[in-house]
Specification:
3% of the residues are buried. Helices cover 84% and strands 0% of the residues. The chain is built from seven helices and no strands. It is mainly α and 153 residues long.
Amino acid sequence: MIKKFTKILSLLDKSRKIKFIIVMFFVFIGSLVEIVSFGSIIPFLEILVNEQNNYFQNNEFISSFISNFDKKIELLAFLTFLIFIIFFLKNIFLIFLTWLSTQFVNDVRLFLNRIYLDQVLTNPTSFQLENDSSKIIRNSMGEINAITNKIIF
C-alpha cells in the first residue's frame, strides 16, 4: 500500500507535492476540529442532566467559571451559544477544506491528463493505429480519475 502511494506521489511535481502536504495538514486540523466540536457536547450534557456538577469540581478553573453564573439557565444559554459558535466555525472550516481538496484533486487530475495526453501524442502513428481510441479515452478518463481519488482518500 505504501509503495503504491509513493509511486502515485512520484508522478506529481514539486509544487503539487507541497500542495498535497498542505491539504493533508488541513485534513488533520479538520479532524482535530471535529474532535473538539463533539467533545464540547459532553460537558453541556453533564451540566444539563446533573444538578450537583460533581464532574467539574475537580477542575478549579471550570468550577470557578460555573460559579460565575447565578442561574443554571444562564449557564445553559451560554454553553448553547458556545456550542453553536463551535459548530458554525467547524462547518465553515470543513466547507473550506472540501473546496481546497476538490481544487487540489482537479488540479492533479488535469496535470495527469496532460501528461498522459502528451505521452499518447508523442507515440508513433503505429501506436495510434494499433490501439483503440476507446481504450485511450478509457485510460485517460477512468484510470486517472481512480488515481486522483486514491491520492486524497
